[in-house]
Amino acid sequence: MPFTAPEQFNMASWFLDARVDEGNGDRVALRTDRGDHTYAEVASLAGRYAAALRELGVRQEERVMIALPDGPDFVGAFFGILKLGAVAVMVNPGQAPDALGGILSYSRASAVVVDGSSRRAVELAAAGVAAAPAVLDAAGELPEGGLDTVATHRDDAAVWLFSGGTTGRPKAVVQTHNSFANSTECYAKAGIGYRPDDVTLSVPKLYFGYATGSNLLFPFSVGASAVLFPEHPTPDVLFGLIARHRPTILVTVPTMVSQMLGHAAAGGADLSSLRLATSAGEALPPALYHRWRDAFGVELLDGLGTAEMWHVFVSNLPGRVKPGTLGRAVPGFEVKVCDPDGAELPPGDVGHLWVRGNSRALGYWQNAAKSAEAFRGEWFVGGDLVSMDADGWVTYVGRGDDALKVGGKWLIPAEVEGCLAGHDSVIECAVVGVPDPAGLTKPYAFVVARGGGSDLEDELKRYVLERLDPYKHPRRVIVVDTLPQTHLGKVDRAKLRELARTELG
Length: 505
What we know:
Helices cover 31% and strands 24% of the residues. It is an alpha/beta fold.
């Protein structure tokens, strides 16, 4: 059922302080290779960050940027910001100074929390900002003691999330305290069934809303623990962390599913501690789902969420899985499929996904036109194209803005990518449209491959031709070492189009 918080509500109290008040302060909240941290220790750290930010002059409702790797300081800063009634703006700390400068100008952040890895880039970024923010270095001394949590309204802005598009400047989605509690009750507790004895491990980093929930807020809501690590996630890193920390829930994405399956250590990896894994961010091809189940014996739950609704609202759930689909609407949310005019479509027809529930954002920062287009009354209308059968199972078709017109017909890259993913030589792939010299759009496929030889391009073209309509086959298959990613870890299709144009000369 949808959750509505009391009118006076601060999510820092609900997710963190309540665990200490319940007498669970000595439970392990965070697990790292440098040691564990209890709920009482995290609450103390959050209070000290709140006090440090207050000393820097941060006031309620002001934005504070977090430019930190995953670790206890990220968590302490995150909850410290919320305790002040300020707004957390989470960013990838590895971004270049010009990208960080753009976010600083856009957010008008009054302070930034950094560490040794991000301080120089933030200082360079701040030099170009009209009102330079205060900088709080996580390596410095924090005040002893803490501050009482500020009384906030459930509908106050709490966190900025950035929309996960694959092109253009991300839009800041302004989310409320209530949204985070609602998705936790509906998806994490009632849907997935997070338990106090769970240990979570995430491939996406905490600045990505999918991980903020699945690897921080959701485990914290039940007194469970989260594994945090600062390194870039690779199969080697993940297999090592699973062996050391024995997580019960793995939070992952299709790209990493494919990479783990293709790794030399996959055959000997012990994933028996996992009771389930979740996948989101991009569509999970059925072939990849079955390979994962066959290799590791762990249920993999695909789902769909957006920053505008904060987290997952359509999902396969434990004991209720239909491979090749995103699942059904999470209880507490309602979805429908509509045509461009907003008329609901019959089962099986492809259209835009509409969703409503108590996790709806306030809108896009400084973008009234886009807000009006996407937020329609109680409903959010995104760019995802889906179909839904008579039983409510939702199948992902693609992004409306990624659809290609090839030979006068519509081509959805996800369909071709799903086909290519079934080939034994394909580890990862992405399909983009590129205009040829005559100005006609042609599909190009970029593939990360295992073996295959010099004739792999022709082999993959034939593979698609045998399975899909001829106009859908990629005109070129380009083998690359890795696929470029956006700041949120999704495939950067704009960069792939640039690479394809280079191939064309």
